[in-house]
Amino acid sequence: FPVSERAGGVERKTSKMIQFDLTSARTFWIAESKTPEEETKRTNSDFLTYKNRKGKFADFHCLRHTFITNLGKAKVPPRIAQSLARHSTLDLTLNIYNHIEQEEHTNAINNLPDWQ
């Protein structure tokens, strides 16, 4: 999936594609509101926005982080995740792109054997 002419591919402008898709999805999501109050709440939320109020973007790069993190949650073997991500090192896959949530830490501790 080369994304630029410099990489030997077609200039795809993925950020523009993602912005368009999010805008379209958000429009439909807001339109599905059951009440005027719900519509107002949805309109005022950051859900399905390309850039939220904190300045964080939903760009192609963040989709890679989400993909790799979800592979980890699905217990996909790390070498398979590395291959799917097309990363040169396992360290890049596991320590940069794979994110662990607090709940996962809590579950790991709670699953330790009882030492009675």
Structure description:
Helix content is 56%, strand content 0%. Helix 3 runs antiparallel to helix 4 and helix 3 packs across helix 5. The relative contact order is 0.08. The protein starts with 13 loop residues before the first helix and ends in a 6-residue tail after the last helix. The chain is an all-alpha fold. It is flat, with a radius of gyration of 19 Å. The mean pLDDT is 88. The chain has six helices and no strands.
Characterize the biggest β-sheet: none
Order of helices and strands: HHHHHH
**Number of H/I helices:** 6
Helix content: 55-70%
Radius of gyration: 19 Å
Low-confidence stretches: none
First-to-last CA distance: 54 Å
Question: Briefly, what is this?
Answer:
By secondary structure, the chain is mostly helical.
Please name the defining characteristics of this protein.
about 0% strand; mainly alpha; about 55% helix
List the helices and strands and how they pair.
Blueprint: H1 14-31, H2 36-43, H3 60-73, H4 78-85, H5 90-97, H6 102-110
Helix pairs in contact: 3-4, 3-5, 4-5
